[in-house]
Design goal:
The complex is a heterodimer of chains A (about 160) and B (about 425). With about 160 residues, chain A is α+β, with helices and mostly antiparallel strands. Helix content of chain A is about 40%, strand content about 10%. Chain A folds into two domains: about 70 residues, no CATH class; about 80 residues, Glutaredoxin. The two termini of chain A are about 20 Å apart. Chain B has three domains: about 210 residues, Rossmann fold (3-Layer(aba) Sandwich), CATH 3.40.50.11540; about 80 residues, Roll (Ubiquitin-like (UB roll)); about 90 residues, Up-down Bundle (de novo design (two linked rop proteins)), CATH 1.20.1440. In chain B, the strands form three sheets. In chain B, strands 8-7-11-9-10 form a five-stranded mixed beta sheet, with helices on both faces. Chain B has a four-stranded parallel beta sheet with strand order 3-2-1-4, sandwiched between helices. In chain B, strands 5-6 form a two-stranded antiparallel ribbon. In chain B, strand 9 and strand 10 form a beta hairpin. The longest helix of chain B is centred in the C-terminal third of the chain and has 18 residues. Chain B is globular and about 70 Å long. Classes of the chains: A alpha+beta (about 160), B alpha/beta (about 425). Chains A and B meet through helix 2, helix 4, helix 5, helix 6 and helix 7 of A and helix 5, strand 3, strand 7, strand 11 and helix 13 of B.
């Protein structure tokens, strides 16, 4: 959890401010839920522990059960800790035709963990992912918010080695 | 094939990311022109152009706009569909990254035409960089009075927001998108009522794809007749951004009048990968029926591909060469649909999962001939029996595999293994 996350009723002040800025642009509070979860997840280091979900529910005056329902529906919201670098390797058809599964194997071999596990130093976690909409760069992967394309297994490993 | 790009004309000119640069390239002239027109005239022009939705369904855009009730004081919305999750599709990302103001201009003209005062661009959560590019362009447009309380001094007010999704293919389905926008699980709604009457926040709503809206400034600027002069015929008009990926030398976006052939596209993309032979292709994304090499001369437009039993869809063309196992390729797509089914309707939830399981055992050589018939039966039961088109999307590739490529599936059964074992695509030096 980041330092800024530890005060008030759980939701950091900056996160509250970011959510408040969005309020005038939506006719209902419920519509703020996805943006609020993105904001909360950023503050909680890339995932949503129970306290983050409760804090968002309280902030938006929604039932916790409703918020859990939404969190579990979407692939980009996580209920378990993730690495500082979250790696998503595309293995959908266009990437697979260009060696995407080999990229996935190379990432797994290099990190020495399985999908959804975090490396012992907390640095990385990876998953295979559905099409990321960058088939012109196949095979490709996403690290954090950035796309890396035209990979070979060797290039993928070099990129992983270059992460802080 | 020489063609002066229209939607991608500003590729390679990053100055258009700012209002000043976009204006220098002729941008926002169509918006000025539109604001001097009656809203009804704009809708008529879009209708006359024959523009059909570029997201997949190919519904006439002008007709969709005309369903929005007129004269009502109720809030109305435009939701721009930038969820782009159909495997093989990346054109909307490139359109936003290349020329964000083209999309803003198209959205503004649409909103003025239908009387919407709020536009949400629902962009898939993974598109973080494109979302930022668009947000910066929107902020710049506000500063220049192209959005906000009084657009270009016309008295027309428009608020535009980028709304990020969170990783769910089903949110590209228009009512799934509305559910998601409203802060819920993206489970499609029962239609009717249609979004034009009861859409976002229970108000009349237009939902259009990014590329569809990017066409609008050009229709207003250059006229419906010009637009109609491009394409195969009256029902298939305008420019089209094709995404080509898989086994070609230069995967990417290629813009042509709608109706070019696969052969044209492969030639534009530098030919087949390593000079290998074409085996099959998907013309319109993961949901489209797989076509064989013998069908590579078909015009890639809405109606020609529908007649051939497939579809133009999002024009995501996935090219597969002679080394490709089509059972494995179809299995990969079925796995995708099984993962992305929202679970609401039984035929989809069960059908996509069974399709995946049966294809997996066929690919492993553990299948039997009766599995092929079982797949056929399952696809019949999935067709048209769910709330949205996701089940039918899975049916597209699966049914085409068992009907168009049955001998290849049978080879798996007879040999007890995949006749085309996996081989590495990489040179040995690139592997470790």
């Amino acid at each position: 959890m980041s330092e800024s996350a530890r005060h008030g009723d759980g939701l950091p002040r900056e996160a509250k401010r970011a959510i408040d800025e969005l309020r005038p642009h939506y006719p209902t509070t419920e519509a703020l839920l996805l943006p609020a979860l993105h904001i909360a997840q950023r503050h909680w280091g890339g995932w949503l522990p129970d306290e983050a979900i409760s804090a968002v529910a309280r902030e938006l005056d929604l039932a916790e059960s409703k918020v859990y329902g939404v969190v579990t529906f979407y692939d980009l919201f996580h209920q378990h800790p993730v690495g500082r670098h979250r790696i998503r390797v595309c293995t959908n058809l266009s990437c697979t035709l260009r060696g995407g599964e080999e990229i996935l194997h190379a990432v797994r071999r290099h990190l020495k963990v399985d999908e959804n596990e975090v490396t012992a130093d907390g640095r990385c976690s990876f998953v295979h992912f559905e099409c990321l909409g960058a088939c012109e760069q196949a095979p490709m992967m996403m690290i954090g918010d950035r796309y890396h394309g035209d990979l070979t297994p060797r290039r993928a490993v070099e990129i992983l080695e270059g992460l802080d | 094939m020489a063609f002066e790009p229209i939607l991608l004309r500003n590729a390679g000119n990053p100055a258009v990311h700012e209002v000043s640069g976009y204006r220098k390239a002729g941008g926002y002239e169509a918006l000025s022109k539109a604001l001097a027109m009656e809203p009804e005239e704009i809708i008529d022009a879009v209708k006359a152009s024959g523009l059909r939705g570029r997201g997949g369904a190919g519904f006439p855009a002008g007709l969709k706009w005309s369903f929005i009730p007129k004269g009502s004081e109720k809030a109305k919305y435009l939701v721009c569909n930038a969820d782009e999750s159909e495997p093989g599709t990346f054109k909307d990302r490139i359109l936003i990254e290349t020329d964000p103001h083209q999309l803003i201009e198209g959205c503004a003209i649409c909103c003025y035409a239908v009387g919407a005062s709020t536009c949400y661009v629902y962009i898939r959560g993974e598109y973080v960089a494109p979302a930022l590019t668009l947000e910066r362009a929107i902020a710049d447009a506000y500063e220049h009075g192209l959005l906000g309380e009084d657009v270009l001094g016309s008295g027309f007010a428009l608020d535009m927001r980028v709304h990020r999704g969170a990783g769910a293919y089903i949110c590209g389905e228009e009512t799934g998108m509305l559910e998601s926008l409203e802060g819920r699980r993206g489970q499609p709604r029962i239609k009717p009522p249609f979004p034009a009457i009861v859409g976002a926040f229970a108000a009349p709503t237009v939902i259009n794809n990014v590329e569809t809206l990017c066409n609008v400034p050009h229709i207003i600027g250059r006229g419906a007749e010009w637009f109609k002069s491009l394409g195969t015929d009256e029902r298939n008009t305008g420019p089209k951004v094709y995404c080509i990926s898989g086994h070609v030398e230069r995967p990417g976006v290629y813009e042509y009048p709608i109706g070019v052939t696969l052969d044209d596209l492969i030639a534009a993309a530098g030919g087949m990968y390593r000079g290998r032979a074409l085996k099959a292709y998907i013309p319109g994304g993961a949901s489209a029926a797989i076509l064989s090499d013998e069908q590579s001369g078909l015009p890639m437009d809405f109606d020609s591909l529908a007649q051939a039993g497939s579809m133009l869809g999002s024009a995501a063309v996935v090219v597969m060469d002679e080394t490709t196992c089509l059972v494995r390729a179809t299995l990969r797509l079925a796995k995708f649909f099984a993962h992305e089914s929202c679970g609401q309707c039984t035929p989809c939830r069960e059908g996509t999962n069974w399709s995946e399981m049966i294809l997996a055992r066929l690919e492993d050589g553990r299948g039997s001939e009766s599995d092929i018939d079982l797949l056929q039966r399952i696809t019949t039961n999935m067709s048209g029996t769910a709330l949205c088109a996701l089940a039918d999307a899975c049916v597209g590739p699966v049914r085409s595999l068992v009907t168009n490529f049955r001998p290849e599936v049978m080879q798996h059964v007879e040999q007890g293994c995949c006749p085309l074992p996996r081989q590495s695509i990489f040179e040995p030096g690139a592997v470790s």
